[in-house]
Automatic annotation (TrEMBL):
Keyword Chaperone: no
Matching InterPro entries: CBFA_NFYB_domain, Histone-fold, Transcr_DNA_Rep_Reg
The species this protein was found in: Hepatospora eriocheir
Protein name, as recorded: DPB3
GO CC term, one of those recorded: nucleus
GO MF annotations in UniProt: core promoter sequence-specific DNA binding; protein heterodimerization activity; RNA polymerase II general transcription initiation factor activity
Main localization (coarse): nucleus
Subcellular location: Nucleus
Residue ranges occupied by any Transcription factor CBF/NF-Y/archaeal histone domain in the UniProt entry: 15-68
Lineage: Eukaryota, Fungi, Fungi incertae sedis, Microsporidia, Hepatosporidae
Length: 88
């Protein structure tokens, strides 16, 4: 019972719509049934990933230039830390 309350609490705090994440999961035929917590956890993971990437891009900016451009974002995403995301 306590676990259900925690899940309900997390659902309210997510920034990405759980229903859209469920739809994306259901579109993949290789994925069978999933627990109700999966979309909630994925939503939080996406939120943390975007926060980390944007923080790293911001740290890479010059003091005189505070504008995030596609080139600066790509430079961060092409670093070794995010190499697993790149298709080879």
């Amino acid at each position: 019972m306590k676990e259900n309350r925690n899940i309900h609490h997390l659902k309210k705090k997510t920034r990405f719509p759980i229903s859209k994440i469920k739809k994306i999961i259901l579109q993949n035929e290789e994925i069978g049934k999933t627990a109700s917590t999966v979309p909630v956890v994925l939503s939080k993971a996406v939120e943390l990933f975007i926060k980390e990437v944007s923080t790293n891009v911001y740290k890479s900016l010059d003091e005189s230039d505070h504008k995030i451009t596609l080139e600066k974002l790509e430079a961060v995403l092409n670093s070794e830390r995010y190499s697993i995301l790149l298709k080879k």
